[in-house]
Amino acid sequence: AGVTYMLPTLSSYTLDEMLEARSPGQLMFAQKTMEELAEIIRNPTTKLQEWDQCISHNQMCRRLHGQKLTQGILQVLIAGSPCTDYSKWGKVLQSAGPTTAFFLILMKSVLQSLPDVFVHENVTTFPMDHIVSFLGELYDITFSQIDPADDCGFPIHRKRVYLVAHRRAVVMRRCKDIGFPEYVRQVQIKSTHKLQVFLSAMTAGITTVTGSKMKRLLRYRELFSNHNVFDLNQSPDARPRKNAADGSLQTLTTNVTSLWSEDAERYFFGLGTDTASALGTEMVVTTGVSNTAHCRMAGNSMHAAAVGRAIAYLLFFLTFR
Which example biological process does GO assign this protein (predicted)? Predict the structure, then answer.
């Protein structure tokens, strides 16, 4: 109580100086406006190298994803800044600055490589408007909150916010000559506040399930009657799922493919597979080894691989709203 939390910002260090530092902790942080930080990020004379010496693995690790292989492939970048400065615990500790460097590197990498789709995952207190200030002129941006107390089948224990940014004109142009499922063109989305609204776009017309998936659906309803979204690819009896504190589902596996929505009474089949094969999509999921500036920029790679992948594919539905 009574703690005043100050937004972590960089001092007068340039981006080059920041990247040359062996650790963000070696930098002196002071207050600086987001407008000044944006100038550093948007400076066209400052470039990130595709590969950099990684302080976590003591080897060269990839910072930027590669160029598009073919004109028909959409490139999707999934990442997330470390949340230390924006988490509840970070506020209690009055943390100011340790993760800002990684956030700036992430923003610079997006602006430099311009992926067709950028998906960002973080805590609910992360100021998503910062990302909008950097990318808003180049991307259409929307975000949604995922709550494990309501949405089952996602590898999270606490609420998280997912931001989806896409270059609308580029995505539509690349999709133009590809045989895309017809139901995508009928999507209408009015709001993007909750995950359920994202899922409501994926109405492929399948309203019933059979066999093992029906058995799992009935079991989910028995065990988690207060939840809304179930991943029917996972068995609720595989291992203990409930969080002792609030009764929410524990982490499932990292392959979210078959979702059932109680509200929409819809079964969303092949969340990623069908769309990927129709569009020709190259997924670039940042992990702790291959695609981060210092192998910590992506946050929890399991979040990116499972939830980020699912939300990224919803971009294709947002495109045709």
Answer: methylation
Can you tell me the distance from the alpha carbon of 43 to that of 50, in angstroms, rounded to the nearest whole number? 17
Q: How far is CA 297 from CA 14, 106, 249, 290, 292, in A?
A: 19, 7, 27, 11, 6
Longest Cα–Cα distance in the chain = 62
- Inter-axis angle of helices 100-113 and 34-42, to 10 degrees? 40
Separation of alpha carbons 48 and 50, rounded Å: 6
In a domain, 16, yes or no: no
**Average pLDDT by stretches of 10, the chain with 321 residues:** 31 44 38 55 70 60 55 64 61 56 74 80 79 88 70 62 79 58 38 41 49 81 73 63 49 50 50 41 36 33 44 48 43
pTM tops 0.90, yes or no = no
Domain extent for 247: 62-84+108-318
Q: What Rg value do the Cα atoms of the chain yield, rounded?
A: 20
For residue 135, is it within any domain?
yes
Cα dihedral 17→18→22→23 (10° resolution): 150
Domain count, the chain: 1
Alpha carbon distance 147, 156 (integer Å): 8
Task: Supply 156's token pair.
Answer: 């999270």
Q: Is the dihedral of CA 120, 131, 67, 16 positive or negative?
A: negative
